[in-house]
Write a structure and sequence with these properties.
3 helices
């Protein structure tokens, strides 16, 4: 697994995961630093999440991220 990027919110992670799903790219997210502890304690993660993909999908996934950035 390779860390692809960090998102600033759970919503951003969900949107990105949904886009990856359309392209059949499996991914998962993990809270940054103590984010998971904070989420459990107060119900909100303020530190964002790291998004991971399998190595063989990394180049394709990064291409999709770049395409989405251009559309912003």
């Amino acid at each position: 697994m390779r860390r692809l990027l960090s998102t600033s919110s759970k919503m951003e992670t969900r949107i990105l995961a949904d886009v990856f799903k359309l392209y059949h790219i499996p991914c998962f997210a993990k809270s940054v630093g103590s984010g998971e502890y904070v989420r459990i304690t107060i119900g909100v993660c303020v530190s964002g999440e790291d998004v991971y993909v399998q190595d063989e999908y990394a180049e394709r996934a990064m291409g999709i991220v770049e395409m989405l950035k251009k559309k912003e």
